[in-house]
């Protein structure tokens, strides 16, 4: 596993574009949006909070969705398309090892991007740190695994890299929309806010932990079900060819 992880990390860093985007894109979007004066003013629509305060958790979605639903599916499916997986099938490497290596590498990049964005939000716009850091971290990890699991399902089914990208898009746009990336969650219709609270990556749980509202056990349970069920299904569906 260690050898596979090191090899995959070297291959990933040989094309550093996705690593750079994963680390810096959420912060770049934060700085761009935060530069709009209206985003830095309290609003009755957000119960007196500034839009930038409540939108920072939604920026987590960008890092997770881009890597989990775009990069991972394309990487694994391209391995299948090029016959690399067929060669690995002749070795003692279980499919779960390859999928785990992909998750660990991209998770490290995503978490680095989230950390940089949080530090920048505090320094540049005085956005407070999460009032319940433990719940925030739990929601972040469950959201990460659940999003990556959806990407792994697409990677397990697709024969080519392009096909994997197309399959992953089925989840990518709804995740971004319900996560409040295209439109701040307080401006979404109530029914969509309710749906978004229970689907990956758990933006509502991140937001609740951020502002100190605690956490809803049912929302965490839904994220855990997506994470565990999605991962198990990806391993079950995985094919070398």
Automatic annotation (TrEMBL):
<feature type="transmembrane region" description="Helical">
    <location>
        <begin position="54"/>
        <end position="76"/>
    </location>
</feature>
<dbReference type="GO" id="GO:0140359">
    <property type="term" value="F:ABC-type transporter activity"/>
</dbReference>
<keyword id="KW-0472">Membrane</keyword>
<dbReference type="InterPro" id="IPR013525">
    <property type="entry name" value="ABC2_TM"/>
</dbReference>
<protein>
    <recommendedName>
        <fullName>Transport permease protein</fullName>
    </recommendedName>
</protein>
<comment type="similarity">
    <text>Belongs to the ABC-2 integral membrane protein family.</text>
</comment>
<dbReference type="InterPro" id="IPR052902">
    <property type="entry name" value="ABC-2_transporter"/>
</dbReference>
<keyword id="KW-0812">Transmembrane</keyword>
<keyword id="KW-1003">Cell membrane</keyword>
<feature type="transmembrane region" description="Helical">
    <location>
        <begin position="97"/>
        <end position="123"/>
    </location>
</feature>
<dbReference type="GO" id="GO:0005886">
    <property type="term" value="C:plasma membrane"/>
</dbReference>
<feature type="domain" description="ABC transmembrane type-2">
    <location>
        <begin position="17"/>
        <end position="241"/>
    </location>
</feature>
<feature type="transmembrane region" description="Helical">
    <location>
        <begin position="218"/>
        <end position="238"/>
    </location>
</feature>
<dbReference type="InterPro" id="IPR047817">
    <property type="entry name" value="ABC2_TM_bact-type"/>
</dbReference>
<feature type="transmembrane region" description="Helical">
    <location>
        <begin position="12"/>
        <end position="34"/>
    </location>
</feature>
<dbReference type="Pfam" id="PF01061">
    <property type="entry name" value="ABC2_membrane"/>
</dbReference>
<keyword id="KW-0813">Transport</keyword>
<feature type="transmembrane region" description="Helical">
    <location>
        <begin position="135"/>
        <end position="157"/>
    </location>
</feature>
<keyword id="KW-1133">Transmembrane helix</keyword>
<feature type="transmembrane region" description="Helical">
    <location>
        <begin position="164"/>
        <end position="183"/>
    </location>
</feature>
